[in-house]
Every structure is written in structure tokens, then in C-alpha cells.
Amino acid sequence: MFEKIKPKETQSKDDQIISRLAVALLNISAFCSADQIPEEILKDTLFKLIDTSETTLSNETLFAEAFRQLQRFDLLNSRIEIFEYLKKRETPEIVYIPYQKEETVYQSHRTIQKIVKLNLEKEAQKEILNEIIIVFNGFIPWVYLETWKIYEKYLSNAENIIQEAQKLEFPTEKLGTICNQIALYQDDLAQYEKAIQYYEEALKIGEKTIGKEHPNYAIRLNNLAIVYQSQGRYAEAIEKFKEALKIGEKTIGKKHPDYATRLNNLAIVYQSQGRYEEAIEKFKEAIKIGEKTIGKEHPDYATRLSNLAIVYQSQGRYEEAIEKFKEAIKIGEKTIGKEHPDYATRLSNLAIVYRSQGRYEEAIEKYEEAIKIGEKTIGKEHPDYAIRLNNLANVYYSQGKYQEALDLYEEALRIDEKTLPENHPYTIQDRKNVAHCRAMLGK
């Protein structure tokens, strides 16, 4: 069957080129996800591998004819799928709007994929895989809320490409970038173990390609540390943050925005450990760098103000905390918009201070607003959504509304048990909250 698609001397020049394209297309598809291969990955990789300068036929025609040859023998098939995306609507408030788009995807048989790869020399496999990695790297965007749906579309192919590269022992820096991006996406979804897996792979690749003193290597250490911090693995997080800062001092310098970001991240861990003075020192240093580099109207600057406010709140310095939270919220309205997950987090944080002051109705108003935003953005199965439910439940508990509090505590526990490790501090606290509430209700 494979012989039937190979170029033959009896063919015209155009038909020979189409046959070469068909063979290359089959080879490329063997390294992709069998069930859902995006058309753009196939096209871009194909025309990087095969020279078509000797024909006047368009790339669209050439691709269609090459695919038709494979389809004739059931070596590659296509179907139309509807993909969901999110896009920004530029209004006074940046809103993320879902929309759908019909696209062609391709599918191959796993058995055919295996046979194709067995018939290729190792160096030929590496050449094909390298071009796929280069093309794929150009298609995956930075991880933002509005790009989550794009990652859903490409995820299975990314995982397949990473696995194929591991089998061939073929690390490249662009593959390391893909691993880092997939890890960022998994971290956003609170899939922490998967995030750690891909960050570790990105670091492993980085050691072999760019070295352990490179700024991008430090970025990956920093990202891994953030996941450890999310899991409550504070000692491991501090170790990685400090390693990233040390590299940063030698490469980007101590006045760089990225260096400030790492200081901010280290401060968050200190704050989580109750090391408030150390946290304040690092937050203020990061804010000072931010004033001179990114400016006071930048989303990251607002994040650092919010983080400093959290420490003030933990120390009972409520008025200072409220001042910083309100400043951060005001910046957020102008930059990320009032429908963004980070904006919701700042509302929730401000509500915590209001509750600490006994200003319960103001706290409830902010919590409910934050929860409403969370439903539209991070979804109802995310740990951050559970945190907001917990926070609102705390206010009801303080008011003696134990049944309302219990309902929210139980929902938060369900989410955290599904997404976090069993011994995570949040999950442990959830169980305590449920138990206390049940006791108050005599259950």
C-alpha cells in the first residue's frame, strides 16, 4: 500500500511532487496525535520539508492532492470539528466572549503510524519531528484565559510530540518551550502533578540545550516553584525561587522586571509560612523595581500591591491593607478589566479585610461579585473558586448562619478533594470547617 503513493518515473513532474508530498504528509502524521491532527500543523510542516519551487500549483492544491492520495488508501482521513475559543471584546470592561469555529482536523490509524516510523531511519525521524516542533512552537500562544481553548485543541498533539522526542532522545530548546507552556496551562487548571511533570521535563531539556545559567532556565525554575507553593510544598518552593533569583542576579540583573517577579513569588511563600517581615521586605523591593520599570499602571504592579496588602491584613494592619487593595483594584479596572480572574481575587482579598473588621455586608457583596466572575472564567471546579466559597462561608459562620456556611464549606471540600492532594492545607482546613459547622448545627 505504501508503495502505491511513492513517486514514480512515469509520472509528470507535478504528480511526482504531489507523491513526494503525500509520503511526507504520511510521515508527519505519524508523529502527531492519531485522533485529532490540526490541519495547520500538517500544512506548515509539510511545506518546510518538501521543496515545491518546480511546480506552479498552489500550496492549497498541492496539499489537497497529496491528502487525496492518502485518503484513497485510508492512510489519512479528515473531518470537520467545531472548536470553542475565547476572545477579548474591547469595551470599558474587557470581556471574554466564547465563540465557535469550524475547522478541518485529520486522523490516522495508530498501527499505520507505528509502521511508518519503523520504516524511517532514526535521523529521518528526528528531522521530521524537529520541523513539527518548530511549527508547533509557533502556534501555541502564551497562556492566558482567552487562550485556554486553544490549548485544549492542541494539548493531545503537544503531549504526543513530547513523548516522541523522549523516545528518540531528541531534546531541543523549542521542545523545552513547549513543555514549559503546557505546564503553565496545566498549572492554570490546577492540574499540579501534570504541571510538575512538564516543568521537570522543560528543565531537563534546558540543562542539555541552554544550560543552567540561562535566563529561560531560571524562568522554568520559578514556574516550578509556583506549583510547589500552590501545593503547600514551601521548602521546595523556596529552594527553587532562590535558585532562580541567583541565576537572575548574574544574567538579567537585580533591576529587571522578571527579577522583581521572582522576589514577589518568594515573598508569597514567606507570607504563607507566616514570615511576614521577610515577605514585606521582598514585596517592597519588588514594588520599588516595578515603579522604575513597568510603571504604576501595570497589572503586575497591581498584583504586588495586592500581595503586600495580604501581609498587612495578616498582621492586623487593616487600613493599610484596604488602601493597597483598593489601589490594586483601581489599576485592575483600567488594565485587566472587571471580568478577569485576578480582578476577582482582589475583590475577594478586600472582602477578607472587611470581614476581619466585622463589616459583613460589605464583605458578602465583594465575595459574591468575585464568585460570579469565577463562574465565568476559572469555572466551578477550580481550587481558587473553592477558596472564594470558603471565604463567603466564613462570613456566614461569623453571622451565625451555619446552614448557609455548611453548604458552601461542603462544596469547597468537594472541589479541593478533586483537585488538590489529600494532605494539602486547604483540604485539611475544609474538613475542619465542615466538622465545626456540623457541630454547631448538632449534626
Task: Please characterize this protein's 3D structure.
With 443 residues, this protein is mainly α. 70% of the residues lie in helices and 6% in strands. Strands 1-3-2 form a three-stranded antiparallel beta sheet. Helix 10 (234-251) packs antiparallel against helix 11 and helix 14 packs antiparallel against helix 15 (341-356). The radius of gyration is 26 Å and the shape is elongated.
Protein traits:
single chain; about 5% strand; 19 helices; mainly alpha; 3 strands; about 450 residues; 3-stranded antiparallel beta sheet
Topology:
Blueprint (H helix, E strand, L loop, with lengths): L12 H17 L7 E2 H11 L9 H14 L4 E13 L5 E13 L2 H9 L3 H18 L8 H21 L4 H16 L3 H18 L5 H16 L3 H18 L5 H16 L3 H18 L5 H16 L3 H18 L5 H16 L3 H17 L6 H16 L3 H18 L5 H17 L2
Antiparallel strand pairs: 1-3, 2-3
Helix pairs in contact: 1-2, 1-3, 2-5, 5-6, 5-7, 6-7, 7-8, 8-9, 9-10, 9-11, 10-11, 11-12, 11-13, 12-13, 13-14, 13-15, 14-15, 15-16, 15-17, 16-17, 17-18, 18-19
